[in-house]
Structures are given as structure tokens and as C-alpha cells.
Amino acid sequence: MPTKFTKTFIDSIVSTAKDQLVWDSGIAGFGLKTTPTGRKVFVLQHHRSGRKTPARRYTIGAYGQLTLDQARKEAIRLNGKIASGVDPAETRKAQARAAVSLRQFSERYMSEYAVPHKKTSSVQEDRRNLDNHILPALGSKALGKITRGDISKLHHALRKTPIAANRVIALFVTMMNLAERWELRPDGSNPCRHIQRYKEVARERFLSGEELGRLGKVLAQVEGEKTHGPFIIALFRLLIFTGSRLSEVRLLKWEYVDLKERRLNLPDSKTGKKVITLNAPAVAVLDQLPRIEGNPYVCCGNRAGRPLRTVHNAWRHIRGLAKLDDVRIHDLRHSFASVAAGSGMGLPIIGSLLGHRQAETTKRYSHLHQDPLREASEVIAQRIKDAMEPEGVKADVVPLKTQRRGGGGQG
What we know:
This protein is α+β, with helices and mostly antiparallel strands. It folds into three domains: 84 residues, 2-Layer Sandwich (Double Stranded RNA Binding Domain); 82 residues, DNA polymerase, domain 1, CATH 1.10.150.130; 126 residues, Intergrase catalytic core (hpI Integrase, Chain A). Helix content is 49%, strand content 8%. It has 16 helices and seven strands. The strands form two sheets. A four-stranded antiparallel β-sheet has the order 1-2-3-4, covered by helices on one side. Helix 4 packs antiparallel against helix 5, helix 5 packs across helix 7 and helix 9 packs parallel to helix 13. It is elongated and about 110 Å long.
């Protein structure tokens, strides 16, 4: 039942195990909440004008920081705003949004969302995109004032690297959706809507047999000269022989290695739990590697108990010696798949070896798979033709020349 608020009445309220709410009889919606800890807070409860919605409660301030007279005057002022159609809660949210910069929000995004919910490699990619692209362009801008024009301008500035540009937009989409969920932007205000992504052309670089030979020779050379440690050499050989991702080998632990069954049992990877089949060359690499006491990793780093930290400098040196300057570490995985496809193995088998979660991912190798199919088709058709023709009438068949892809031959 509403009661006329006085200082004596407020001071007399004793806290209980649950929040208590009492209402003032003099001002509509003006109340006091007392928490179990004894904290007393002035509140104003109201319904949004013209809407049949649940009552909204607005915190005016804590008793002690505000006197009763100050809280009463603020309640009267806010009721006047509400009567004119202004929602004080939305006004406060707008002010909070205006005070938060994108740089400040990005730190909250990383700590409260990216780190707890994403894989380490994805967290690192988010940090790179923030530091290299997003924050230099928009870091100081208020989160609530970022517009579609701002995002579109940044996307356009990255047009020469379309994949990177699209990844920046994808990160922005996630961050702005979270900003809405955390009530730092209005619902439905994501500024990335209607921004058209650039067409992405997957980079395909496969090592030829001759290039694999050069790489193998250089690995043997630096191994003999001890230019790089055994774990660096072993890592690159395992990548070549298994088609694994860099993180899968760099972070591989001996407890995941089953040499008896010839497989790696990864508890987690980019696509989740995964089994990698070990072939004889890969088993030989693992057999020859020393195990460092106290270090659970297959490819040990310089720090005790830790894996190799970085291998990119070593790779740049090795690929330079092999004259493969355009080859990335990930291209070793592509090369494994290209050899499989060129050997006539089916795409489902290749996808399974690589641990692809979706068949679409493996289809990039389908054009490599066509050469053995074409050769098989020629053999089959020739035998059928021979069977169909009477004895003595068979004509010589001139084999088709295989035309190089991208050549200018006439059809």
C-alpha cells in the first residue's frame, strides 16, 4: 500500500532476505527498493506511452547519494518527460552508447565473447583484423554512431584484398549483433546490412612433382647442416605427408599419436574432433623424433613444456632455398589433396583424409580429378569400339592430345 515518503519512514525500513519495494503515495510510480544488503535505491516505474506493455522500472539513484527531496524532484521531472513521450530508460541507453567507443567495445568483445567461445586461431584472426583494419579506421568513433557508410567505406578501402575485406565485414556483423544483444545499439541497427561482399576466388597453388623434389632436397640439406632444428623439419614433413593444417601438427601432443593403429586422434581441430591417418612416411618421421622429458608436444619449442611458437621465418628461408617463394605453408595441404586427386582418388576419400566437414570444400579439387577419369573413359570406349567393329575393318585411332589448362588452343 502506498505510503507518504519521509526521511524517518525510509530510515525505518529494515532489509529482509528478498528485495522490498514500497511506493510513495504522493508521486505516481515513485518508489524505494531495499536490497538484502540494506542498500536503498529510488526508482520510478512507468508504462511506455500508448503501449500496452509491462511496466518499466527506471533507477533514479541510491538513497544517501540523493536526498529524498532530490529524488522526488527528479521523479517529477522524469514523469514530465514520460508524459511528453520520452522514455528515460532509452535516453540513458543512448547516452551510454554515445560514451562507448568502438575500441572500448572491441576489448569487451574479445574478453567476453571471442576468447570464451572461439578457437584460438579464430581469436587471433579477430585480433589481427581489429588491429590492422578496423580500429585504425574507426576505433575512436562512438559505437552507437557507426553507420553503414562507415562500414562501406572501410570495405571499399580493402577492395584489393577481397577475402580480407569480407572477413572484416563478417567480424563487424558479429560485433554489431552483440552490441544489440548487450543493449549498446538499438535492435535492428546493424550497419552491415545490405553491404555486398566481394567475390572471392580461392587461391590454388599446388606443388608439382619437380617442385616437391626440390623441397625434399632442401629439407634434407638444412637437416644435414642443422640450419633448423629437427622439430621444424619434422613439422614440415608431417604437413606434406598428411595434408594436415599447421595448427594440427604444431600443437600435436604425443598422447594423440597412436603408432600401432597409425593414426592421430585429435580431440579438437578447426572442424572438431578428428582422426588423421598416418602413412608410412609420416610414421617414419614420428619414429625418428626425440621425445623431450616434461614436454607433451611432438614438435617442441625452445620454452620448456611448450610447442614450436612460430615457424614462418623458417618456412620463408626453406622455400627461398627451394625457389618456391610464392608457396604458403597451407599450400602443402593443397598439394597433398592435388596428388590424391591426380591419382584418381574420389572426392569423398580426399575430403575424409583432409577432415573436411562439408563436401563443397573438397570440390575445389574436382578439376584435378578429371584427368584420370578422362583417361579411364578413353580406355573403356576404345575397348567397346574394338568389340563392335568386324575383324579387318578396325581403323587406327589417333589418341587425343591433352591440352594445357589456360592455353589458347582452338576448339
